[in-house]
TrEMBL record:
Organism of derivation: Candidatus Phaeomarinibacter ectocarpi
Residue span, HAMP domain: 304-358
Stated name of the protein: histidine kinase
Catalytic activity: ATP + protein L-histidine = ADP + protein N-phospho-L-histidine
A GO term, aspect molecular function: protein histidine kinase activity
Membrane-traversing stretches: 280-301
Signal peptide: none
Entry's localization field: Cell membrane
Gene Ontology CC annotations of this record: plasma membrane
Pfam families: dCache_1, HisKA_2
Membrane disposition: Multi-pass membrane protein
């Protein structure tokens, strides 16, 4: 089973995460639709902001038009006077002067002939001046009704004026001439008091050439002259652009009738659109929060209704795997029915496994007891054979026969030692060489010393576990090597033994058996017996899965022994 620590994407693979992803994908179209609707509303609200600014500009322009109503009344009253219609002097001039008395918003009033010549004026004018080419004159002449024109730059002071004109009253209106009244734009600007205009909104009166008609007005917030003229090419429009000061602003313009005068309202884009942006952010945030809350509810509900029970089942399963056979699923009475049924099934399976485990434990115990009994009886039987060899060796006077009997006794005794070691081991399958090899040499020494001295100089062995199939040939190899050394040096020659069995590589142990011989006897070695010993040593090494390197006089045997289990690991 793969642990959580080895699964970097464990959380992504959980049921809760996958269920949340499925729900998120299911809700995604709703979220996208909601965001699209919010964006659509944003554009609609932005358009309404532009329309609101344009409506305010129309309100200002309508207020300006209302100021011209009184102007038309003045023109109508003046045109009905006989002195004005007849342009008789000085009565006409006197009347016009009296009409302007105490009215500072009017710059001048004059009677103009049908061909554009000035016939009578409240203030002295050049008789050679003609207004035939002025746009306001052409407009009133074509319409034969009241018309507003301008702006014009008046001679005295260089101020700008608007011109209001209408045909003179009478049956032949228009043919008798026209009466025109010039209005100071300064008065027009000061007369505006529109409560509907916001505090951050600026009002401008601009002529068709982009000039401000209000005195000392800062126009740095208006676009450049080129951009402004392009904007004014449409009689009524709303546009967003940058002022000369670099600030982004929203502009709305309305043209006053047929004149070249435009009412422009300007407002910073950020303040105009801030409510709309706030509403958009609020709508999107509400959708995202709703989406997140829904996922959180699903996350917590999954924990309560599913993950909680799965974790309990997992904990019980892991406890059983660790050997806690009495671990059971409990407290599933309030769990969903599917988990209750799964818990009941798991408990039934755990009960069956516990019964099976008890049966296996009993069977293993019986098997171990049987093996111990077998090893014990085999050892006892071998001990009887050893006693027979010993008894025969003591009752014979033939040295050669006695040597053979001692040799056979030593080999059988090694087998008895193997069974005794297996009997004492925990699992009766593996034998520790750290305990067995010193014991083997001690028993061999006792048998050897019947004829000659055997000195065990050193035994260096790691705690390496070998199976019985390996210990038996290893023991026989040690005995055969010592027997060959004694056969080559003579039965009565003293022998010194050094044995090492150490870890060398993964799953391999290095075996070295080195002997040194004292004074050799004058006996002639049995060549056939030595040849047999070399063959036996090689055969025992092959049973160990190794290849032995044997010295000519058998004083050194070296090999690498493979093994499958190391008790020290």
């Amino acid at each position: 089973m793969t642990s959580k620590a080895t699964q970097p994407f464990y959380a992504l693979e959980s049921v809760r995460t996958r269920l949340s992803v499925v729900l998120a994908l299911a809700m995604l179209p709703v979220l996208v639709f909601g965001v699209a609707s919010a964006i659509s509303d944003f554009y609609a609200r932005s358009a309404s902001v532009e329309q609101a600014l344009f409506d305010k500009a129309k309100i200002v322009s309508n207020e300006l038009r209302s100021t011209f109503v009184s102007t038309r009344q003045v023109l109508s009253i003046a045109s009905e006077q006989s002195a004005v219609r007849n342009t008789s002097q000085p009565a006409c001039t006197n009347f016009l002067q009296s009409a302007l008395a105490g009215v500072p918003q009017f710059a001048n009033i004059a009677i103009v002939s049908s061909d554009g010549a000035i016939l009578c004026s409240a203030f002295a004018t050049d008789s050679s001046v003609s207004v035939a080419d002025d746009k306001w004159f052409q407009t009133v002449k074509a319409r034969r009704d009241f018309a507003l024109g301008g702006p014009l730059e008046s001679a005295p002071g260089g101020e700008y004026v608007l011109v209001a004109a209408e045909p003179l009253a009478g049956e032949n209106a228009g043919n008798n001439g026209y009466i025109a009244l010039s209005i100071r734009t300064e008065y027009v600007g000061s007369s505006l008091a529109i409560d509907a205009i916001a505090d951050d909104t600026d009002l401008y009166l601009i002529d068709g050439r982009g000039r401000s008609l209000l005195p000392a007005q800062d126009i740095s917030q208006l676009p450049t002259n080129e951009a402004l003229l392009a904007f004014l090419s449409d009689d009524t429009s709303v546009v967003e652009g940058a002022g000369q000061d670099g600030s982004a602003r929203l502009y709305a313009s309305v043209r006053l009738d047929d004149s070249d005068v435009y009412v422009i309202l300007s407002r910073p884009s950020i303040s105009a659109n801030m409510p709309v942006i706030t509403e958009l952010v609020g709508d999107v945030a509400a959708l995202v929060v709703l989406f997140a809350i829904t996922l959180l509810i699903v996350w917590l509900a999954t924990e309560r209704m599913s993950i909680k029970w799965v974790r309990h089942l997992q904990a019980v399963a892991q406890a059983n795997r660790r050997g806690t056979s009495d671990a059971r699923v409990r407290g599933f009475e309030t769990a969903p029915i599917e988990y209750r049924e799964l818990g009941e099934t798991f408990n039934s399976m755990a009960d069956a496994m516990e019964r099976r485990q008890a049966t296996l434990i009993q069977s293993v115990a019986e098997r171990e007891l049987l093996l111990k009994e077998i090893h014990h009886r085999v050892k006892n039987n071998l001990q009887i054979i050893i006693s027979l060899f010993n008894l025969n060796a003591r009752n014979t006077d033939d040295d050669v026969e006695k040597a053979y009997l001692r040799d056979m006794q030593m080999r059988v005794e090694s087998l008895a030692l193997v069974h005794h070691a297996a009997y004492q081991s925990e699992d009766m399958q593996l034998i520790s060489t750290a305990d067995f090899l010193p014991t083997l040499l001690e028993h061999t020494k006792r048998v050897f010393e019947e004829d000659a001295e055997l000195t065990i100089a050193s035994v260096e062995t790691d705690d390496i576990d070998l199976s019985m199939d390996q210990v038996v040939p290893l023991a026989q190899l040690v005995l055969e090597t010592l027997a060959a050394v004694r056969q080559a040096a003579g039965r009565h020659a003293p022998i010194t033994v050094r044995l090492a069995f150490r870890h060398s590589a993964e799953g391999t142990a290095s075996f070295t058996l080195a002997t040194s011989v004292g004074a050799t006897a004058s006996e002639t070695p049995n060549t056939k017996r030595l040849t047999l010993s070399r063959s036996l040593i090689s055969a025992f090494a092959r049973q160990l899965g190794a290849t032995a390197t044997v010295a000519d006089d058998f004083t050194s045997v070296v090999m690498d022994v493979p093994y499958t289990r190391d008790a020290a690991a």
